[in-house]
Amino acid sequence: MTSPYDLFKTDPGIETEGLTLDYGDFQIRIARAGGANRGFVRALEARLKPYRRQLQTETLDEQVAERILREVYADHVILGWQGVSDAAGKPIAFTRDNVLELLSDLPELFRDLQDQAGRIALFRAKELEDAKGNSATRSAGS
């Protein structure tokens, strides 16, 4: 029998320390966008505060909202990467500016990272416990 704890209890350590999404030739380490990652929540609230009225009236420019979200993800969700390279195959160092550029250049990657960072299942304590003994790496799309 499955209890609510099995379905909804997350591991706060993993939510903030992150887990690795394996995209095959490259990996990206992410924290949860929300939950125990209070830095993300506080930063997003602070960055959106000047736009509160536009949010309420649903008039916030989509490009402004995307830019703010990319910046908050670069600061509080995307924790590192390995094997990430540019279109020519040249390795890209993990820096805030490079994260922002990658997310801007590859909006579909950004959407996937948003989806993964918001998935409670990736950060659920029971699933993490069940996965012990296996690799700590999670594959993208799981």
Whole-Å distance between the termini?
A: 23 Å
Number of domains: 1
Task: Give unreliable regions as ranges.
Answer: 135-142
Give the H and E element order.
Answer: HHEEHHHEHHHHE
**Structural class by sheet pairing and helices:** alpha+beta
Q: Based on the structure, what is the oligomeric state of the protein chains?
A: single chain
Shape: flat
Largest beta-sheet details: 4 strands, mixed
Strand order of the largest sheet: 3-2-1-4
Total number of helical segments?
9
Classify the beta-strand content into a percent band.
5-15%
Average pLDDT works out at 90
Relevant terms:
142 residues, alpha+beta, 9 helices, 11% strand
List the helices and strands and how they pair.
Blueprint: H1 4-8, H2 12-17, E1 19-22, E2 27-30, H3 38-48, H4 52-56, H5 62-76, E3 78-82, H6 96-105, H7 107-117, H8 120-123, H9 125-130, E4 138-139
Parallel strand pairs: 1-4
Antiparallel strand pairs: 1-2, 2-3
Describe this structure in words.
This protein is an alpha+beta fold and 142 residues long. It has one domain. 51% of the residues lie in helices and 11% in strands. It contains nine helices and four strands; from the N terminus they run H-H-E-E-H-H-H-E-H-H-H-H-E. It has a four-stranded mixed β-sheet with strand order 3-2-1-4. A hairpin with a 4-residue loop joins strand 1 and strand 2. Helix 5 packs across helix 6 and helix 6 crosses helix 7. The longest helix is centred in the middle third of the chain and has 15 residues. The C terminus is likely disordered.
